[in-house]
């Protein structure tokens, strides 16, 4: 395993598998925030303390799992941006963590961030709607680390974290979900407030502060205190099943009442992707969303969704510049993005 593999391979191995409801739910994620007792929070750590902590955490995790350690100080800004685009590290770890590091599995379904906002953030990813299974895997990793270190834990408050919103279970359960039907029928405007009232939050593709690209939303729990990990996950699964039902109904309604218009939209977007000479991130994401919908409905059969997953990552600014070997101006990125999409889709058609 090498740094080059994590940086140059666009699609993580786990993304090539299909999980339950993969036509709508792209991925499930479980993240646990933990801190070590007798150490200050990461923003107050000294370099020798951070180094000692990284060693302890790594030993605990690597005793049971094959994981590669990457330190933030050893990576360029561009390399860190690529890892953010692949959802392997957070923007905070990339930009604000003085002594940050990450432990990554070969398939990239396990990512353990060290000295981010908290000492430890264990993240596990799975395709489709597999929150319960992913929680089990994450808890097993948590147990392996806890066998080596002592966590900061209070009997009344639960796990202690740097941000009060994570105190308790320290759990963030989330799904990445594709909702073009609800967007086109404008039902999303009433569904998002309803989700918020239930203690869950809807964000963009890269979490807090990010915008929605290609009709892809991230839905996660807002509360970590007062409920067990299993209850939080159970509630989110229930909400996601309801959203899936609404999305399917919206797609059926569009196919039945506006079939020719929907088909036209899908193939116009496919035409843009296969013929454009310059395309911005937002337009590319929207066109990829339309084509994904076209595949799910049955309009398009000569393109696989795995190619769309690949293009979702490859067309991000960090990846484009990584392949170019250095920084690019915005227009240069847009030209390269269009060329990359054309070439990849042409290769798929020829195959």
Beta fraction: 15-25%
What is the CATH domain class of the domain at 1-11 and 30-152? Alpha Beta
What is the strand arrangement across the widest sheet? 2-3-4-5-1-8-10-9
Order of helices and strands: HEHEHHEEEHEEEHHEEHHHHHH
Provide a count of the helices.
Answer: 13
Average pLDDT rating: 91
Contiguous low-pLDDT stretches (5 residues minimum) are none
Which structural class do you get from the secondary structure elements? Answer: alpha+beta
GO molecular function, one term: ATP binding
GO biological process, one term: phosphocreatine biosynthetic process
Binding site for ATP: 27-31, 87, 121, 172-176, 203-208
InterPro entries: Arg_Kinase, ATP-guanido_PTrfase, ATP-guanido_PTrfase_AS, ATP-guanido_PTrfase_cat, Gln_synth/guanido_kin_cat_dom
Concise structural overview:
The protein is of the alpha+beta class and 351 residues long.
Describe what you observe in this structure.
The chain has 13 helices and 10 strands. With 351 residues, it is α+β, with helices and mostly antiparallel strands. Among the domains are: 1-11 and 30-152, 2-Layer Sandwich (Creatine Kinase, Chain A, domain 2); 257-349, no CATH class. An 8-stranded antiparallel β-sheet has the order 2-3-4-5-1-8-10-9, with helices on one face. Strands 6-7 form a two-stranded antiparallel sheet. Strand 6 and strand 7 (158-159) form a beta hairpin. The protein is globular. Its EC number is 2.7.14.1.
Keywords:
globular, single chain, Creatine Kinase, Chain A, domain 2, eight-stranded antiparallel β-sheet, 13 helices, alpha+beta, 351 residues
């Amino acid at each position: 395993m090498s740094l080059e593999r994590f940086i140059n391979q666009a699609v993580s191995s786990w993304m090539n598998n299909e999980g339950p409801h993969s036509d709508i739910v792209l991925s499930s994620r479980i993240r646990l925030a933990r801190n070590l007792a007798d150490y200050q929070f990461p923003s107050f750590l000294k370099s020798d303390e951070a180094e000692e902590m990284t060693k302890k955490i790594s030993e605990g995790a690597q005793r049971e799992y094959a994981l590669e350690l990457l330190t933030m100080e050893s990576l360029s800004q561009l390399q860190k941006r690529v890892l953010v685009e692949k959802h392997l590290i957070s923007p905070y770890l990339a930009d604000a963590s003085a002594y940050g590091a990450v432990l990554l599995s070969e398939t990239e379904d396990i990512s353990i961030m060290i000295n981010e906002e908290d000492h430890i953030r264990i993240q596990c990813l799975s395709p489709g709607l597999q929150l319960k299974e992913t929680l089990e895997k994450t808890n097993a990793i948590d147990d392996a680390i806890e066998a080596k270190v002592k966590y900061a834990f209070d009997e009344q408050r639960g796990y202690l974290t740097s941000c009060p919103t994570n105190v308790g279970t320290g759990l963030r359960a989330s799904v990445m979900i594709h909702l073009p039907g609800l967007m086109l029928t404008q039902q999303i405007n009433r569904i998002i407030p309803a989700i918020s009232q239930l203690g869950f939050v809807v964000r963009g593709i890269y979490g807090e502060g990010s915008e929605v690209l290609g009709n892809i939303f991230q839905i996660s729990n807002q509360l970590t205190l007062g409920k067990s990990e299993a209850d939080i996950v159970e509630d989110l699964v229930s909400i996601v099943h309801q959203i899936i039902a609404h999305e399917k109904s919206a797609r059926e309604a569009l196919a039945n009442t506006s079939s020719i218009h929907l088909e036209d939209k899908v193939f116009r977007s496919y035409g843009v992707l296969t013929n454009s000479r310059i395309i911005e991130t937002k337009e590319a994401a929207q066109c990829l969303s339309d084509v994904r919908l076209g595949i799910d409905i049955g309009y398009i059969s000569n393109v696989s969704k795995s190619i769309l997953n690949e293009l979702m990552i490859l067309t991000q600014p960090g990846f484009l510049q990584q392949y170019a070997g250095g920084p690019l101006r915005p227009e240069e990125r847009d030209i390269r993005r269009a060329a990359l999409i054309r070439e990849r889709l042409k290769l798929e058609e020829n195959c």
